[in-house]
Structure formats: structure tokens, C-alpha cells
Write a structure and sequence with these properties.
heterodimer, A: alpha/beta, 4-stranded antiparallel β-sheet, 10 helices, B: about 290 residues, 12 helices, globular
């Protein structure tokens, strides 16, 4: 059994300059017979907000843990900020909000942030300002002296985000950063991510909330069963049209006959054809009517990330 | 401050904030108070002739009772070390607490050593503090002072550290409950192994005696306990035991000889092996 990676070799001069924030080549991870990640190859430039999407168990969190050196890859290579993963010095420039975590419930929010300032490590003279800034950014200034054990899940997530922002990192990993937040909190997180991007920080965002990803990410990759099944800018990914049809009178057999029109998001009386050209709408309507369906509404619209996501997953299943 | 010391400070701080230290202090004060009262009674009770006991008899009874009371202290220390060390790493892996710490420039070896160091400080403080209070109480109540109080503290403290080291090793791979239970069972098995070895010595049966030697090598808590006993026994008592021959050695609350030096050297190596295994185990664990 080999060690989980920890390296401290000095970086060659200029090695990290101009290098991508994240670079992976055929990064793979197996747990026994289960393939968690199957050959992830990608590059995230510095300063970019990169969305990493996928259903549960797709390999998103595994990818983040591999990149942070918390797991050891089965094969492949990866680097962060121009240095191999696991490099201790690189971790000084990285912020990380885990998906499932808690902090020491017996510490106050201010003490948790001070602990992370110390471990980062940041100069002691900067701690006060760093902590005040982080607390203000995540809206916890009023609760700074309260024990974390008294915090709600959403407040703990805010605190985790604050800890990830300490020291103005060059790269921030956010693993489901809004899963416990209310709409106001989600809006705040989007603003924080935009703020990070504006100062040149690269953000690697794992999220199930596709509308959120759509609003803040420059590029996205969709991962399923440990493989990237699509990646690109929003414009590249969302070039198609989705058509929503409100219909009654169609049974499962009838709906199955509509498969020729592409991937369908079936929500009972509402069917969304996630990638259908507008000129095929009349044909679609006549087919539905021919199958005995009653059409109440047909509304073509620009494809959303959710449409595209569902389409990609459906195509992947075939 | 280096990460190792930060983790050690955090470990001490956690036990303090969770009021474990306060609970131990209060319990210790209660036990010391009761035992001081009990020991004082030894000086006032009368024998069948209606006379108070002579000083040498008071000293003998006190030394034997002090061994039993110290056995309780060492048990509390061993239990506390095992129960606290059992979940020391595993619970923080399960809760995700270590994810954010290990994403910082912190080595896993620093986490392991820091946690060991933090708990070792507490074990040492408890061993020294409780021994000081108890010995002072006994001295006040009966005028008896065990012959080697410093060695007593060192042996009892080392026994606690041994359980702490075993618990920490188990904590790198097993859940807190499982690790704690295994450490406790190992401690009891080690004690029983020592008793079996003593029986072998008494019977002059080498095979049975080897059971004790092997158990002492695997987990040295029992022989460390014997070292603590030896530090509490008056010279006259030891001379009597030696005169009684090998049969007198078959007693889990008596020690005729101090732990041999090679064994004490092995204990130092054993601690190194435990800590080394803990670091290796945690470094190779994927979280």
C-alpha cells in the first residue's frame, strides 16, 4: 500500500508561471472493483470559474479529493497551479469547501477561522483582517463569537466557505457550496464566486444546482460514471432548443413512440424534449395527436443547462 | 507554531472544552478525599487485644491498600486513554473535519504526532497530579510514603501512554467504538496474561511463564503496572516476598523485582513502533 501523496520538493523556477490552475491527464480511481473515475482529462485555466456537473455517484467529489491529495489516483497524472497534486506548498494557495463536513463544534466561528489562518499558514499580523473579511463576506460577523456547535447546517456551510476564502487563494474548490443554503444564501454564494473570479481566482465548482452553475461558470464539464461526457463553454453546450409540451392522454407506450424526437424529460403531463429543432415541432404535434394525445401547450425555448444535462445523461444511458 | 503543536494544542483544548479534564479533577478529588479518610482510619483501628496497630503494621497495610487504590487510578487512566484515543482520528475522518485540515499544508504524520502529543500531555498531567494528591493524602493520614514515588508516576503514566498509543493506532483505521473496545480488551488480556505468567513462575513451568513474557512484549501495560507496584512496596515487604520463593510471585498485586532494563528498553522501542505504525496507517488511508 502506498502513501497518499504528500510532497514538498521545491518548485523549479518558473514552473508554475502561466500553467493552468488544474490539469489532469487520464486521472483514474478505482475502489476495489468499482470505477469511481475513468480517465479524467481536463484543463482549467487560471481565473476561470469551472463547473463540474454530474448525477450522484458520478465521480465529482472523488475528483476533488484526488486533486487535493486526499485520495491516491489509481493511474494518470494531475497538477494544481503547475505543481503535482499533493504538493504541500501548493496547498498554501488553495481553498477548499468540502461537501460533507463539520468543524470543531466546541470552537467559535472566529476560532475556527483563526485555526485555518494558522494552518494555512498566514502571517499572524494578517489574521485579524482576514478573519473579519471572511466573516463579513459570508455574513457571520454577528455570530463570530458563538460556538460552531450551535450553528445551523447552512451557517456551518457559510463558515466553511469563509475558511476557504482565507488568504486570497489562487484556486478554490467548492463542493456543493449551496446544498444547505436558502435562496438568499445561494445568491450570496454566486456573488462570492463572481468576486473571486474578478480578482483572478480560479474556482472549481461541484454542484447539482444547474441554474446556479449556468449563472456563474465560464465553462462546464459533465461527468457520469467516472467519465466526462461533455465539456465546453455555456454557448458551446447550450446551442440547441428545448420544447416543452403540455399533453394528456398519452400512456407509457405512446410516450415511448416519441423517442425519435430525442431525449425527453417526462414529468407526467409535461414533456420536455431537451434538444429538438424548432422546424420539427409541427411533426411532433401531429405525432402526439396521432397517438391519441391532447396538446394544450407547445413552447419552444432556448435550451437550459438542465435540459442539456438530462439530454446528455439520457444519451449516455443508451 | 508548527502544525504538530497546533494539533496538540487543539487536542488539549478539546478535552478541556468538553469538560473531560474538569470531570477527572472532580472525581480525583472525591477519591482522594475518601481514601484519605479511609487511610486515616487505619491509624485508629484496634486489634483483637484492643490496641492501635503498631507503625510497621500500619505501613504494611497502607502500602497494600495504596496498591489497590493505585490500581483504580491506573484503570481510570487506561480506560480514559483508550476511550479518548479510540475516536481521536476515526471520528474526525467520519465527520469530514479532517478534510479541511488535510487540504492545508499539513502532513498526516503531523496530525498523528500532534494528537498523540496532546493526549500524552494530558495523561502525564493526570498521572502526576493524581499521584501527588493521593501520596500527599496518604502521607498526611498515616505518615507512610511509598519508597519510589517518582518511579510510581512514571510507570503509571507509561501504562496510560501505552493504551493511548494502541488506541490511536486503531483509530487510524477503525471506528471509535471498535477501537476503544479493542484497546480495553487488550489491556485486560494483557493483565490476565501477566497473571498467567506469574502462575507459571510460581509453578516453575517455563511454558506457562512464557505466556506472561509474550503478553508483556505485545502490550507492556501489565509489566509497567508491576513496575508501579514495585515502586510502592516497602523494602521489608519485598524482602519477605523474596524469602518466600517463587510461589510469592504468583500475585497480580505484588512485585518482587523491578521490570528488567532490557524490558524497559523494549517499551521505548514499542512506543516508537506504535507511533510509526499509526503514521504509516493514516498516511496510506484514503479519506
Amino acid at each position: 500500500m502506498t502513501d497518499v501523496i504528500e510532497q514538498t520538493a521545491a518548485a523549479p523556477p518558473g514552473a508554475a508561471a502561466g500553467s493552468p490552475a488544474i490539469q489532469t491527464v487520464n486521472l483514474s480511481k478505482r475502489f476495489g472493483h468499482t470505477v469511481a473515475l475513468a480517465g479524467l482529462s481536463m484543463s482549467v485555466p487560471r481565473g476561470e470559474v469551472f463547473g463540474f456537473l454530474g448525477p450522484n455517484g458520478a465521480g465529482k467529489t472523488t475528483s476533488v479529493k484526488l486533486l487535493l491529495g486526499l485520495l491516491k489516483p489509481t493511474s494518470g497524472q494531475a497538477s494544481l497551479l503547475g505543481r503535482p497534486i499533493g504538493d504541500l506548498q501548493t496547498r498554501r494557495k488553495i481553498g477548499y469547501l468540502p461537501e460533507l463536513f463539520r468543524y470543531q463544534g466546541w470552537l467559535s466561528a472566529r476560532e475556527v477561522l483563526a485555526l485555518h489562518c494558522e494552518l494555512a499558514p498566514l502571517p499572524r499580523s494578517s489574521w485579524k483582517d482576514e478573519i473579519a473579511s471572511a466573516l463579513d463576506t459570508v455574513g457571520l460577523t454577528d455570530r463570530a463569537g458563538d460556538r460552531v456547535g450551535t450553528f445551523s447546517k447552512g451557517m456551518q456551510q457559510r463558515l466553511g466557505l469563509g475558511a476557504a476564502l482565507l488568504g486570497e487563494p489562487e484556486l478554490v474548490f467548492l463542493d456543493e457550496p449551496t446544498s444547505a443554503l436558502d435562496p438568499v444564501g445561494r445568491h450570496d454564494v454566486r456573488e462570492i464566486i463572481r468576486g473571486l473570479a474578478s480578482r483572478g481566482t480560479a474556482v472549481f465548482l461541484n454542484s447539482h444546482l444547474l441554474s446556479e452553475v449556468e449563472q456563474v461558470c465560464d465553462r462546464v464539464a459533465v461527468v457520469d460514471h467516472g467519465r466526462v461526457i461533455a465539456s465546453g463553454t455555456m454557448d458551446e453546450l447550450l446551442s440547441g432548443t428545448a420544447v416543452k409540451v403540455r399533453v394528456t392522454g398519452l400512456d407509457d407506450t405512446g410516450k415511448a413512440k416519441l423517442a425519435e424526437f430525442g431525449a425527453i424529460d417526462d414529468e407526467g403531463d409535461q414533456l420536455t424534449f431537451t434538444n429538438l429543432k424548432p422546424d420539427r415541432v409541427p411533426e411532433l404535434v401531429s405525432t402526439i395527436v396521432g397517438l391519441g394525445g391532447k396538446v394544450f401547450e407547445v413552447s419552444p425555448r432556448h435550451q437550459t443547462l438542465e435540459d442539456r444535462f438530462l439530454q446528455l445523461l439520457e444519451e449516455e444511458e443508451k | 507554531m508548527p502544525p504538530t503543536l497546533v494539533i496538540a494544542r487543539l487536542t488539549v483544548q478539546e478535552t478541556s472544552r468538553r469538560r473531560l479534564i474538569l470531570a477527572l479533577i472532580i472525581l480525583t478529588l472525591i477519591v482522594v478525599g475518601f481514601s484519605a479518610w479511609g487511610f486515616h482510619k487505619i491509624t485508629t483501628v484496634t486489634n483483637s487485644a484492643g490496641n492501635v496497630l503498631p507503625p510497621e503494621q500500619v505501613a504494611l497495610i497502607t502500602s497494600q491498600l495504596l496498591i489497590v487504590v493505585t490500581f483504580m487510578y491506573s484503570g481510570v487512566l487506561a480506560l480514559s486513554a483508550a476511550v479518548v484515543a479510540g475516536p481521536l482520528i476515526s471520528s474526525e475522518v467520519e465527520s469530514g473535519l479532517l478534510l479541511s485540515i488535510l487540504a492545508r499544508p499539513v502532513r498526516r504524520s503531523e496530525v498523528v504526532i500532534g494528537k498523540w502529543l496532546g493526549l500524552a500531555i494530558l495523561v502525564a498531567l493526570y498521572a502526576a497530579g493524581s499521584a501527588f494528591l493521593e501520596i500527599a493524602a496518604v502521607d498526611w493520614a498515616t505518615g507512610y510514603m511509598p519508597p519510589h514515588p517518582v518511579q510510581l508516576v512514571l510507570f503509571v503514566g507509561a501504562e496510560g501512554l501505552a493504551l493511548l498509543s494502541l488506541g490511536l493506532l486503531l483509530s487510524t483505521r477503525l471506528s471509535g467504538i471498535t477501537g476503544g473496545v479493542i484497546a480495553l480488551v487488550a489491556w485486560l488480556m494483557g493483565w490476565i496474561g501477566g497473571v498467567v505468567g506469574d502462575v507459571g513462575t510460581g509453578l516453575q513451568n517455563q511454558a506457562v511463564e512464557n505466556v506472561g513474557i509474550i503478553s508483556h512484549l505485545i502490550l507492556p501495560t501489565d509489566l509497567l503496572w508491576r513496575g508501579a507496584i514495585y515502586a510502592m512496596e516497602p523494602d521489608a515487604f519485598i524482602a519477605t516476598m523474596r524469602a518466600a520463593g517463587t510461589v510469592a510471585r504468583a500475585n497480580p498485586f505484588a512485585a518482587v523485582d523491578p521490570p528488567p532494563l532490557p524490558f524497559l528498553a523494549w517499551v521505548v522501542v514499542w512506543f516508537g513502533i506504535m507511533l510509526g505504525l499509526s503514521i504509516w496507517s493514516f498516511r496510506t488511508r484514503e479519506i
